[in-house]
Specification:
About 45% of the residues lie in helices and about 15% in strands. It has about 375 residues and is of the alpha/beta class. Helix 5 packs parallel to helix 6 and helix 12 crosses helix 13. It is globular and about 60 Å long. The structure holds nicotinamide-adenine-dinucleotide. Nicotinamide-adenine-dinucleotide (NAD) binds next to helix 2, helix 4, helix 5 and helix 6.
């Protein structure tokens, strides 16, 4: 006997991304106005660096507006993006009496937004969440697009879910307190967006990249908009990464592996920068980019103060093995996505954007990267 549970769904997960300056008051007024539906209490999640800079101020604004809010602060850094930290936050929320009546407000960089979005997606089988992004990297990439995850000892982002926020606030003023390395890390994802889908953004960066370090208002607003536009164009067509969304992984096959093998001494964007050069070098061998394009990519990454070589302390053999933890690996075979010159991606067939690469090819490229 078959009992058919017909359950066709039409879901509207649309949300706004607001790019602006000091958006705490806007956040609070929109929460008061029902941004998170019927949520009657809020859990603000932040990290130990962001809490004294922005988290506490937003908490105070929420409390002053009469919003019942508690804050949970996690230690800053990638090492907090774990299943154990998710459990810690969930237990804390339960002990505070949260049930399905709550909403999660993530105030921080990509670690906080990735972890908070995942917590919100499973707490009480799903409660609303909002991202208040305080790094260029989270503005450029992590807080937008609905991918949430935690890392495991094997590799980064292996456990997680697609979960779209109710709104994303990109507060450019918060970049003024970011250390240079963190700004550079965010620029890596911005350069990636130029490489994969926006040659004008790439050229704009070639003219203006130094101004990002001065937090130039016009330049920061421009790159924020272009980052969102590139990412949205891809995600709206393939939210669940069944094909096209793989292109957002440009540079991440080597990047994620380098990040893990470095024991997180390299920041995410620094590792992505190395990965972007690796795919471009491989692309040069395969005829997808030319020498001049490879040089432009390396030069721009260099001006963004990003590494373009693999640090000596990383073992090449271990790195090649780590490539096989990539989520694009199919039937034990490695796959890379490639740019087609600057501003476009290679397509290898109907909805196929990745190409199988042998272990020998990958190992040879890695050897040239020291
Ligand atoms: N979900 C996605 O689609 C996606 C995309 C790209 C990256 N990511 C993830 O994002 C993470 C990296 O993001 P990140 O670089 O923002 O990391 P992060 O959250 O660790 O922030 C970087 C550092 O800057 C500090 N910080 C944050 N805002 C600050 C501010 N305004 N002033 C001073 N210090 C500040 C943090 O405390 C931390 O020490 C990685 O875990 C990566 O996997 C996710």
């Amino acid at each position: 006997m078959i009992f058919n549970c017909e359950l066709v769904k039409t879901v509207d997960d649309s949300y706004d991304i607001e790019v602006g300056h000091s958006l705490g008051d806007t956040l609070v007024s929109e929460l008061s106005g029902g941004l998170c539906g019927k949520a009657s209490r809020f859990i603000l999640i932040s990290d130990s660096n962001v809490e004294p800079l922005y988290g506490r101020e937003i908490l105070e604004k929420m409390l002053s507006a009469g919003l019942k809010t508690d804050m949970i602060v996690i230690p800053a850094g990638e090492k907090s993006k774990t299943r154990e930290m998710k459990e810690y936050i969930e237990d804390k929320m339960l002990s505070l009496g949260c049930r399905r009546d709550c909403a999660v407000i993530a105030v921080g960089g990509g670690v906080v937004t990735d972890l908070s979005g995942y917590v919100a997606g499973t707490f009480g089988r799903g409660v609303p969440f909002v991202n208040y992004a305080t790094t260029l990297l989270s503005a450029a990439d992590a807080s937008v697009g609905g991918k949430t995850a935690v890392d495991t000892p094997l590799a980064t982002n292996l456990i997680g879910m697609f979960n779209q926020p109710k709104k994303v606030y990109i507060d450019i003023d918060t970049w003024k307190t970011l250390p240079q390395r963190e700004l550079s890390s965010g620029l890596a994802e911005t350069i990636k967006h130029g490489c994969l889908g926006d040659s004008e953004l790439f050229e704009y960066l070639e003219k203006n990249i130094e101004k990002v370090f001065d937090c130039d208002r016009e330049v920061c607003e421009y790159i924020s908009h272009r980052n969102c536009a590139v990412k949205y164009k891809v995600v709206m067509q393939d939210e669940r990464e069944s094909g096209l969304r793989e292109i957002l992984n440009l540079g991440h096959t080597v990047g994620r592996a380098v990040e893990t093998v470095s024991g997180y001494r390299l920041l995410h964007g620094e590792a992505v920068a190395i990965g972007l050069v690796a795919q471009a070098r491989l692309g040069l061998e395969l005829g997808f980019v030319d020498e001049r394009e490879l040089d432009r990519i390396k030069a721009l990454l260099g001006r963004a103060k990003l590494p373009v070589r693999i640090p000596e302390y990383i073992d090449a053999g271990e790195l090649v093995e780590k490539l096989y933890t990539d989520k694009k690996v199919r039937n034990g075979r490695l796959r890379f996505v490639f740019e087609d010159g600057i501003g476009k991606m290679k397509c290898f067939g109907d909805n196929v954007y990745s190409l199988e690469i042998s272990k020998e090819q990958a190992a040879r490229i890695i050897d040239t990267m020291y």
